[in-house]
Amino acid sequence: MKLLADLHVHSRASADGRSSVQALIEAAKARSLAAITVSDHDLCTPLPERPDVLLIPGVEITSANGHILGLFLERPIDFSALGRYPAPEKAIEAIHACGGLAVLAHPFAPVKLSEDEISKLPFDAVETANARAMLKPGANEKARQLASGLHLPGTGGSDAHCAKELGGCVTEFTCEPSLSALKAALLSGQCHPVEVRACKWVWKGFSKLRRERTCGTFVSRCKALSYFAGCVLRDILKI
């Protein structure tokens, strides 16, 4: 059975997220997605049980050197013990200790670790199709080359921060519709990342505005407004 899953999604539990889990579920159904990973920033969002969409427990950890996705978590990560901005190896260790898979998120948008450093870390997969990374020419292609060189599976996720973004990039599986089957398929490389459409710049702008409105300063909010205006202009001019 072919299944499509968006393995990188944020709810409004993230400081820069704008949609509820329920809104994300409805968007997933509308886009014929069998599963989504709710991977909020540095927290494990509680998920309801749903018969219509598989909800994969996840997280996106902000490590000292970039973002790391934790997929298929069996229990929440103890962030009080992990601390803020942990070393990548500590973040990966915490994900594995909770039964999850550690995925290097959008490694070239921006670059935080060298390829040599990445090769020494026990990642389970590399995100090679990210809809927001599509805005940076060549970022996903470099990620694909990296995954191939490391002999690691590639994953696809929209990095959605609102329901409209869902499904921008997905992972295609051929397996039974269950969390255990999806996890096993990913571990064995029985999946294929797919780019569907790039994120709009204005969606990134809205994310930044919400984050700064939530926890920013007056100066940072002014900068966010300027960034948002630039995003709108980019979409208008198609640059």
Compute the number of helices: 8
Order of helices and strands: EHEEEHHEHEHEEHEHH
Coarse shape: globular
Mean pLDDT, rounded to whole units? 96
Strand order of the largest sheet: 7-6-5-4-3-2-1-8-9
Helical amount among residues, as a percent range? 25-40%
Alpha carbon gap, first and last residue: 39 Å
Tally the beta strands. Answer: 9
**Alpha-carbon Rg, integer:** 17 Å
Beta-strand portion reads: 15-25%
Give the biggest beta sheet: 9 strands, mixed
Structural class: alpha/beta
- Flag low-confidence runs: none
Question: What is the compact description of this entry?
Answer:
The chain has 239 residues and is α/β, with parallel strands linked by helices. Helices cover 36% and strands 22% of the residues. A nine-stranded mixed β-sheet has the order 7-6-5-4-3-2-1-8-9, with helices on both faces.
Q: What order do the helices and strands come in, and which of them pair?
A:
Layout: E1 2-9, H1 21-30, E2 35-38, E3 54-63, E4 66-71, H2 79-82, H3 88-97, E5 101-104, H4 115-119, E6 125-130, H5 139-150, E7 154-157, E8 169-174, H6 179-187, E9 191-195, H7 201-215, H8 218-237
Parallel strand pairs: 1-2, 2-3, 5-6, 6-7
Antiparallel strand pairs: 1-8, 3-4, 4-5, 8-9
Helix pairs in contact: 7-8
Description:
The chain is α/β, with parallel strands linked by helices and 239 residues long. It has helices spanning 21-30, 79-82, 88-97, 115-119, 139-150, 179-187, 201-215, 218-237, and strands spanning 2-9, 35-38, 54-63, 66-71, 101-104, 125-130, 154-157, 169-174, 191-195. A 9-stranded mixed β-sheet has the order 7-6-5-4-3-2-1-8-9, with helices on both faces. Helix 7 packs antiparallel against helix 8. The longest helix is centred in the C-terminal third of the chain and has 20 residues, at 218-237. The termini are far apart.
